[in-house]
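From the pipeline queue, job 12 of 40. The input is one protein chain; the requested action is below.

Action: predict structure.
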Amino acid sequence: MKTKPNVLNPDIQSYNNAQSPEEKAICNTLSKAIVQQLPEAENKIWHAHPVWFLEGNPVVGYSKLKGGIRLLFWSGQSFDEPDLHNEGSFKAAEARYTSVKQINQADLKRWLEKAREIQWDYKNIVKRKGVLERLK
């Protein structure tokens, strides 16, 4: 199900509601901030996790892991942010949370602004046989 801009997809709220109380608080805090900072982004459950897209390109999402909630920025390695840690072999970077108190709202706002401005073209990665190109 696709959503209108600036509205949280009900499937994402269902995902958040299915978590433990602390993880639900983390997910609700993250989703609220993402919708506020990226009001134009489409959001939906993608590969079983909440993900936000700008013009069809995934930019940010989160998922439940054994050790808490992982916030993932697809182009985060290009953000030059010391509190985001490289994830995978492409350009993604992450932050992990076990408590809602760990979420620094100023950092989150800055990272989300960078998610809009700094993007690698994940939408066409298959077409380009695994080669990423910078969009913005």
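Job complete. The first strand starts at residue 42 and ends at 46.
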